[in-house]
C-alpha cells in the first residue's frame, strides 16, 4: 500500500491499496504531477494523479514490456 501525506499539515491525503500485493516499484513523473507503480499482481503499470491518487491510465505488461518472470 502507498500513503500520500501533506508534509505541511501532517495529514494523510489518500491511500492506494493496489490489489492485495505490495508495490514492487514506484516512480514520479518529471513534473511531479503523476505517480506510476507496478506490483506483481498488477497486470502492468498503473499511472495515478499525485494530487488525489485517481487512476489516469493502466498499461498492460505487453505495452510496457514487463517480464512475467525474473527467474
What does this structure look like?
The protein has 71 residues and is mainly β. Helices cover 6% and strands 42% of the residues. The protein contains one helix and six strands. It has a four-stranded antiparallel sheet. A two-stranded antiparallel sheet has the order 1-2.
In short:
This protein is mostly beta strands.
Fill in the keyword field for this structure:
four-stranded antiparallel beta sheet; mainly beta; 71 residues; two-stranded antiparallel sheet; 1 helix
For the largest beta-sheet, the strand count, sense and barrel status come to: 4 strands, antiparallel
Helix content: under 10%
Parts with pLDDT < 50 across at least 5 consecutive residues: none
Q: How many DSSP-defined strands?
A: 6
In order across it, which strands form the biggest sheet? 3-4-5-6
Tell me what portion of residues adopts beta-strand conformation: 35-45%
Overall spatial form: globular
Tell me the Rg in angstroms.
Answer: 13 Å
The N- and C-terminal alpha carbons lie at a distance of 25 Å
Estimated structural class: mainly beta
> What is the count of DSSP helices, taking H or I runs of 4+ residues?
1
Order of helices and strands: EEEEEEH
Mean pLDDT: 81
Amino acid at each position: 500500500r502507498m500513503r500520500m501525506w501533506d508534509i505541511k499539515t501532517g495529514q494523510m491525503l489518500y491511500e492506494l491499496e493496489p490489489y492485495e500485493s505490495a508495490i514492487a516499484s514506484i516512480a514520479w513523473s518529471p513534473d511531479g504531477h503523476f505517480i506510476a507503480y507496478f506490483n506483481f499482481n498488477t497486470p502492468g503499470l498503473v499511472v495515478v494523479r499525485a494530487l488525489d491518487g485517481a487512476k489516469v491510465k493502466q498499461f498492460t505488461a505487453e505495452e510496457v514490456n514487463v517480464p512475467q518472470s525474473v527467474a
